[in-house]
Amino acid sequence: MSDLLENPKAGRVRAVAALSKKDVRAETGLFLLEGPQAVREAIEYRPELLRELYVTPTAAARYALDDAPVDTWFVTEQVLDAMADTVTPQGVVAVCQQFPTSVKDVFPDAGAGLEARGGLPGIVAILEEVRDPGNAGTIIRAADAAGADAVVLTGRSVDPYNPKVVRSTTGSLFHVPVSVGVTLADAVSRARGLGYTILAADVSGDDLPEVRADGMLDGPTAWVFGNEARGLTAEDLALVDRAVKVPIYGRAESMNLATAASVCLYESAFAQRTANPSTGD
After folding, report:
1. Would you call 16 helix, strand, or coil by DSSP?
2. Is the domain of 219 the same as that of 165?
């Protein structure tokens, strides 16, 4: 633990704060991690990715971060506020190495069949032009909770290392592989080559309970989720096996993308565990 950092304008402080900008993250390969829960998840699951940790003395004691396995600095609240993207980082900010997963690792060699991924049914979420950081982060978190194998963000989607995305995952970014930069067509082609059923969440589709009753959720499923405002294009929908909508039984005009995605992912998880009880072990 170093001496207390007290100058909010110090070079180190500015360098950390600059990670809120996409071009700086791209240049450095680093990203900002804020809050004790996210930092604890990084320490437990991917400690090798941590580069620097900045904590107030109070937070270090409260969250037992005094002996974190990374270079650690005590900082004042003013310094932490200057570093953080959020207004309430709860006394903890870290710098991490980015760790995107190759789409070839999410979807092994096309044509290899399910043996390439252990022969077990699986779930992958593919985000096409999802621009809202909160939605993207919440979908990553929901995918993690539903036991999905991976999340794929196409090149038209938000950067998964955007601070708002990272915060919204609440640590799930360290649990589920996240692939970036691929096109929707390539992701769908790779998934289909491995035997996935490709489903698109879209208001033009069939009701989700009907699709589940048809057995389309029982096996490996890749869900495609589109832009918050425009959804998926006709060209996008032409790539999938079936469009599916979450029915609205009440008076709500529509459903938030992340909420609808959570429902879809969990329906797949329920269906797979019913059809293949061993997957719930």
Report:
1. helix
2. yes
